[in-house]
UniProtKB/TrEMBL annotation:
Organism field: Desulfomicrobium macestii
UniProt: substrate binding residues: 65, 94, 123, 162, 184-186, 225-228, 264, 291
Family under the similarity heading: Belongs to the ThiC family.
Cofactor(s) needed: [4Fe-4S] cluster
Keyword S-adenosyl-L-methionine: yes
EC number: 4.1.99.17
Pathway(s) per entry: Cofactor biosynthesis; thiamine diphosphate biosynthesis
Gene symbol of the encoding locus: thiC
Name of the featured protein: Phosphomethylpyrimidine synthase
Length: 429
């Protein structure tokens, strides 16, 4: 049984109760959301951890991508990144490894992670083929499906499957003067396979088998955006929309089968198109949870793409996106290091929380109020306790501590808060 099928029978599962508790909502609201497919609770039947809900009416969640690449990364470093991500507040990690010995890496991450773990099973198949001196074209549909099954059996809580990369949609990437072509790794691999084998996407052709596997382990399917725009000038083009239509339809098939499903979205996108894209996704995909990468609102800031993504992520979350995939300062440049991971999680949490305030998530502003009350009182410890980053504010303040009084070095004796507090209390300062 899956969370989805149980919800539809009217059962409130322990996982739904945990989510309700974390969100301060009635468990029945969570059950109803899961039953309708507007909320997912990714958790493999074989794993135990403190679950999170993703979807309508819930706090916006944040994922951190980690993992080796074929040319860099080692298991101990990736596990340290997992720690950094979780300590910074990530609700999810994705193992996007494509290096050597992927099973060991994946299993270690699954073993150590106190949060949900996602992956893109196709990467492991592709990496193994490349290791064996072959290309992606040597893959077969059954090799892919068997690997997906094995990886789900290992305990993945959700998997990205780029089922909407159809021949027709790929053809559209050539038609509308796309600048950046296909930037999704999974999307590009599948497009190459399809072209060289003159076949349709195996994830689409074998979708029912995929649903059987997902159902068995209650693995949430994250229908990937293999044709997402990788440049702001490519946003909302016909290839992207065609793929969205396909995965919207597949989402319906998944829900009918009792499989939890979310929809992935872009990418690089001008600020003024973001709310419209969220609206389209919600409408076309029957309110399924929307998992976005960024969106990055400009292409010209490599080195600062945690910022371009946080700007877009805040707008997306405010418009109804449910799950933000982090982008780090390393995006477009190199594999992220531990500091990149930390900065990526914090900037994405800022975007998510800003979105939650705007979308009116229950109690979203409580922590802001708590911090602001302390700020007004010059209660530094209280401020640090309520802060998103638990270390940096204290360090900056202490390193630059004013020599006397409670103020900071910004204004010193001309501290506005101090002056106004004295006025309020009626004592001359
Ligand atoms: C789809 C997203 O995944 C990121 N991405 C791909 N592979 C890795 C990895 N090993 N570690 C961290 N991020 C990764 C890309 O930078 C892009 O932002
Ligand atoms: C939100 C999100 N995160 C990760 C991926 C996988 O990456 P890729 O599509 O490049 O294989 C994705 N498609 N969308
Ligand atoms: C083209 S670089 C890899 C990923 C890219 N940043 C994206 O938006 O999907
Ligand atoms: S340029 Fe770098 S980040 Fe972009 S697709 Fe190629 S390897 Fe990946
Ligand atoms: Zn990009």
């Amino acid at each position: 049984m899956t969370q989805s099928s149980l919800a539809r029978e009217g059962t409130i599962t322990p996982e739904m109760r945990v989510v309700a508790e974390k969100e301060s909502l009635d468990p029945e609201i969570i059950r109803e959301g899961v039953a309708q497919g507007r909320i997912v609770i990714p958790k493999n039947v074989g794993r135990t951890f403190s679950v999170e809900g993703i979807g309508a009416g819930l706090k916006t969640k944040v994922n951190a991508n980690i993992g080796t690449s074929g040319v860099q990364g080692a298991l101990d470093i990736e596990l340290a990144k997992l720690d950094v991500a979780v300590r910074a507040g990530a609700h999810s990690v994705m193992d996007l490894s494509t290096g050597r010995d992927l099973m060991t890496t994946r299993r270690a991450i699954l073993h150590h992670s106190p949060v949900m773990v996602g992956a893109v099973p196709l990467y492991a198949v592709a990496a193994d083929l490349v290791d064996a001196g072959q290309g992606i074209e040597a893959m077969t549909a059954s090799l892919l499906l068997e690997s997906i099954e094995a990886q789900c059996a290992e305990g993945l809580d959700y998997i990205t499957v780029h089922c909407g990369v159809t021949r027709q949609a790929v053809a559209r990437t050539h038609g509308q003067d796309r600048v950046a072509g296909i930037v999704s790794r999974g999307g590009a691999l599948l497009a190459a396979w399809m072209e060289r084998n003159n076949r349709e996407n195996p994830l689409l052709e074998e979708f029912d088998r995929l649903l059987d596997i997902a159902f068995r382990f209650d693995v949430t399917l994250s229908l990937g955006d293999g044709l997402r725009p990788g440049a702001v000038s490519d946003a909302t083009d016909s290839a992207q929309i065609q793929e969205l239509l396909v995965i919207g339809e597949l989402g319906r098939r998944a829900r009918a089968r009792g499989v939890q499903v979310m929809i992935e979205g872009p990418g690089h996108m001008p600020l003024n198109q973001i709310a419209g894209n969220v609206m389209l996704q919600k409408r076309i995909c029957d309110g399924a949870p929307f998992y976005v990468l960024g969106p990055l609102t400009t292409d010209i800031a490599p080195g600062y793409d945690h910022i371009t993504a946080a700007i877009g992520g805040a707008v997306a979350a405010a418009a109804g996106a449910d799950f933000l995939c982090y982008v780090t300062p390393a995006e477009h440049l190199c594999l992220p290091d531990m500091d990149d991971v930390h900065q990526g999680v914090i900037s994405t949490l800022i975007a998510a929380h800003s979105g939650d305030i705007a979308k009116g998530v229950q109690g979203a502003m409580d922590r802001d109020r708590a911090l602001s009350v302390c700020r007004k009182e010059l209660d530094w410890e209280g401020m640090f306790a309520a802060a998103l980053d638990q270390d940096l504010p204290r360090r900056r303040w202490e390193e630059n501590r004013a020599s006397e009084g409670k103020t900071c070095t910004m204004c010193g004796k001309l501290c506005a808060m101090d002056a106004h507090n004295s006025l309020r209390r009626g004592c001359p300062s």
